[in-house]
C-alpha cells in the first residue's frame, strides 16, 4: 500500500520551500551592484533547487524497497502481512482472533439468518474516505429506501458498543474501505450474513482467495445505493442462495483464517524473504532489547490470551506454488467475470 511512500512525499513538499527561498536570497546579496544578475541567478537557482527536490523525491519513491504492510494495491509493491488485530486490539476492545472467532461463531447461533433484519448494515466512521461519505447517503431519507442502514460511530466517544459478536443481526453486512483497506473485513465476513463488498482497491494477505458471488456480493462503487438496493432485493427473493453466500464467506474465514494458518503464512513469507538477503543479519553485542514487557490492563490480558503456549504439533501447511502469469491472469479474469455478471443482472433490474 502506498501510505508510507505518500507520507514521505508530503514531508518532502513541506520542507523544500525553505531550502528554495533561503539560498537565492543569500546569493543575490553578493551581486547587488548589477540588479539583473541576482534576478537571473535567483531564477536559475530556484529552478535548480526545485528540480533537485523533485529528483530526490522521485529517487525516494523509486528506490524504497518493498515494505511489509497490512495491505497492498495495484500501484505499490508492499508485501502483505497479517495485521495487528489478530493479536487483539485493546484500544477498541477487540479480542485476539482465536477468542473472537469463537465468540463470533457463538454469536451467529443467536439469530438465524431468516430472523435477521432484511437490510444491509454498516457501522463505522463515515468521515474516513470518500467511499464512506458516499455510503452514508444510502440511508433512508423519507423519499428513497435503498435497503441500507448506515450508522456513524464516533471513535472518540469510546468503544463500549463495539461488541462484534452481537452485531450479526442483519442479513447483509456492508464492507467499505476507508482511507485504505479496513481491518473490519474478516469480522464482517464472519457474520454468516451475505457480505456486500463495495469495489475494493486494496487487498490484504487473504483477499485473493475470496470470490464474488461465492463468498460475497460485489457492490458497484460508482452506483452504491442502487447496487445495494439491488443486492438486498435479490437476497430477499433468493434467500437460499443469499444464505449460501453468507455461509461460504464465514466458512472461508473460519477455516482458512485459523491462527495456525496465519502463522504458517508468516513463516513461509519470512522464509522466502530471508532467501533474498545478500548479508547475514546478526544481533550486535551492544544491542538492547527494547521491550518484551507484558504491560498492564487489557493490553496485558490480550497478550496473555494470544500467547502461543507451545510449539505446533503439526508441520506447516504446504504453500501453493507461485502462480505463473497466465494462471494469475485467469484467476483475476474469473473474478472480473463474476462481478460483470452481477452488473448485468443489476442493469436488467430483475431479481
Ligand atoms: C471471462 O469471460 C469471457 C467472456 O465471456 C470468456 O471468454 C472467458 O473465458 C472468461 N474467463 C474466465 C477465466 O472465466
TrEMBL record:
Q: Which Pfam families match?
A: Glyco_transf_90
Superkingdom of source: Eukaryota
The keyword Flavoprotein belongs to this UniProt entry's keyword annotation: no
Task: State if Transmembrane is listed as a keyword.
Answer: yes
Q: Where is this region: Disordered?
A: 1-20
Q: Which UniProt keywords apply?
A: Membrane, Transmembrane, Transmembrane helix
Tell me where the transmembrane regions lie.
39-59
Domain Glycosyl transferase CAP10: residue ranges: 36-280
Under the heading InterPro entries, the entry gives:
CAP10 (IPR006598), O-Glucosyltr/Glycosyltrsf_90 (IPR051091)
Its name, as the record gives it, is Lipopolysaccharide-modifying protein
Amino acid at each position: 500500500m502506498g501510505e508510507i511512500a505518500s507520507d514521505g512525499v508530503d514531508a518532502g513538499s513541506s520542507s523544500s520551500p525553505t531550502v528554495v527561498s533561503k539560498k537565492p536570497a543569500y546569493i543575490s546579496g553578493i551581486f547587488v551592484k548589477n540588479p539583473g544578475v541576482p534576478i537571473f541567478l535567483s531564477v536559475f537557482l530556484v529552478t535548480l533547487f526545485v528540480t533537485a527536490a523533485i529528483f530526490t523525491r522521485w529517487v525516494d519513491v523509486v528506490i524504497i524497497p518493498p515494505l511489509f504492510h497490512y495491505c497492498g494495491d495495484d500501484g505499490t509493491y508492499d508485501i502483505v502481512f497479517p495485521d495487528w488485530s489478530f493479536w487483539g486490539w485493546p484500544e477498541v476492545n477487540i479480542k485476539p482472533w482465536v477468542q473472537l472467532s469463537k465468540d463470533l461463531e457463538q454469536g451467529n447461533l443467536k439469530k438465524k439468518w431468516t430472523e435477521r433484519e432484511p437490510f444491509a448494515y454498516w457501522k463505522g466512521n463515515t468521515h474516513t474516505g470518500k467511499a464512506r461519505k458516499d455510503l452514508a447517503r444510502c440511508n433512508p431519507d423519507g423519499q428513497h429506501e435503498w435497503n441500507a442502514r448506515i450508522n456513524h460511530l464516533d471513535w472518540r466517544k469510546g468503544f463500549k458498543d463495539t461488541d462484534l459478536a452481537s452485531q450479526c443481526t442483519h442479513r447483509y453486512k456492508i464492507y467499505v474501505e476507508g482511507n485504505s483497506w479496513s481491518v473490519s473485513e474478516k469480522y464482517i465476513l464472519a457474520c454468516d450474513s451475505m457480505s456486500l463488498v463495495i469495489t475494493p482497491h486494496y487487498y490484504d494477505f487473504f483477499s485473493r482467495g475470496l470470490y464474488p458471488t461465492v463468498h460475497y456480493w460485489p457492490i458497484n462503487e460508482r452506483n452504491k445505493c442502487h447496487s445495494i438496493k439491488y443486492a438486498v432485493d435479490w437476497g430477499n427473493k433468493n434467500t437460499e442462495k443469499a444464505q449460501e453466500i453468507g455461509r461460504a464467506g464465514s466458512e472461508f474465514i473460519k477455516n482458512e483464517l485459523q491462527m495456525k494458518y496465519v502463522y504458517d503464512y508468516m513463516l513461509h513469507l519470512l522464509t522466502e524473504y530471508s532467501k533474498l538477503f545478500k548479508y547475514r543479519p546478526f544481533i550486535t553485542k551492544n544491542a538492547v532489547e527494547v521491550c518484551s514487557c507484558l504491560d498492564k490492563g487489557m493490553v496485558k490480558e490480550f497478550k496473555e490470551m494470544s500467547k502461543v503456549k507451545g510449539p505446533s504439533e503439526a508441520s506447516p501447511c504446504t504453500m501453493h506454488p507461485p502462480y505463473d502469469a497466465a494462471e494469475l491472469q485467469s484467476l483475476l479474469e474469473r473474478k472480473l467475470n463474476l462481478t460483470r455478471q452481477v452488473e448485468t443482472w443489476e442493469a436488467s433490474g430483475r431479481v
